[in-house]
Amino acid sequence: MLETGAIAGRLHRHLVEQGRRCAVEDVRIGGSYVAVVLTGGRIGLAARLKEAVGAEIETSRASERISGRPADTLLDRLVYGTGAVERAMGLATANALIHPPAPTEEEDTISLMRLRAGERVAMVGLFRPIVPRIESTGVRLSVIERDTPEKERREFLGACDVAIVTATTLLNGTLEGILGELGRPRHVALIGPSTPLCEEIFRGSPVTHLGGSAIVDGAAVLQVISRGGGTPDMRPYLRFVNIMVHRS
Fold first, then answer.
1. Rounded CA gap, 34 and 225, in Å?
2. 150: Cβ–Cβ under 8 A, 6 or more apart, which residues?
3. Cα–Cα distance measured from residue 159 to residue 198, given in angstroms and rounded to the nearest whole number
4. Does this model's pTM top 0.85?
5. With contact defined as beta carbons under 8 Å apart, do 31 and 228 qualify?
């Protein structure tokens, strides 16, 4: 059973030395996403949780305070941050350090799950655009959100054959608890633009599939974030990346 924050802690330890050798060039804090730009133009993204949207933060001032500082000072916020925006800055920094290359051809995230009619699929966090495709396979889909009663959540997670989990669980501290409530699913996918595409840190966990993204037009992505746009607005400037995790 993983302790709360264990995955974030692994990610921090894996990247902290690299972070000390890079500097922060820019930070963008939008209504839906946070972006961190490192030396050389490497950009990382992380979702800005809804409960943080009311915070009064000005991107220009944040960037002025942080620009030129070693990246590990922002990475630290992933594990030591006191609020949702700080944790998002930490995860965005981690994703900038990982900086996955964009694939020449995208693999289809849903196809890689090989869903079969009659299987039970638990979706943690509503991924509305992919629901019709999932349901068209004939699976029994159960969506789990923050207000789902505990009894139902445990039942859905304990009985599922496939779990699809939003990467924002890394930011709200619920990922490890969700993984701990799983039974014996054959496939566990952590997906979304916030997903850290670092296979090593998920080894030994129930996660078998990382579905994240690589940025192909950084300037356009930064503009979208500054305007408060979300995933659909960024999609033309991203390429989906899928990595399978070795399960011990």
1. 7
2. none
3. 28
4. yes
5. yes
Spell out the domains of the chain, with CATH numbers in brackets. 6-98 (3.30.390.100), 109-215+237-244 (3.40.50.11590)
DSSP states of 139-197 as a string? -EEEEE-TTS-HHHHHHHHHH-SEEEEETTHHHHT-HHHHHHH----SEEEEESTT---
Which of 87, 71, 96, 51 has the alpha carbon at shortest distance from 197? Answer: 96
Q: Which helix (H) or strand (E) holds 110?
A: helix 109-113
| d(C-alpha 101, C-alpha 163), whole Å | 26
Place of tokens 């991924």: 127
Cβ neighbour number for residue 230 with a 10 Å cutoff: 16
Indicate the residue type of 41.
G
Strand partners, 191: 166, 211
DSSP 134-155: HHTTT-EEEEE-TTS-HHHHHH
Residues near 3 by beta carbon (within 8 Å), at least 6 away in sequence: 176
Per residue in 157-181, pLDDT tens?
A: 999 999 999 999 999 999 999 999 9
Instruction: With beta carbons less than 8 A apart as the criterion, state whether 213 and 193 touch.
Output: yes
Model pLDDT for residues 74-120, shown as the tens digit of each residue: 999 999 998 889 999 999 999 999 999 999 999 999 999 999 999 99
Task: Give dist(CA 65, CA 27) in Å, integer.
Answer: 10
CA dist., res. 166 & res. 150, Å (int): 18
Q: How far apart are CA 103 and CA 112, in angstroms?
A: 16
**For residue 188, what are the CA distances in angstroms to 73, 77, 125, 231?**
32, 27, 14, 22
What sign does the dihedral 7-56-227-75 (CA atoms) show? negative
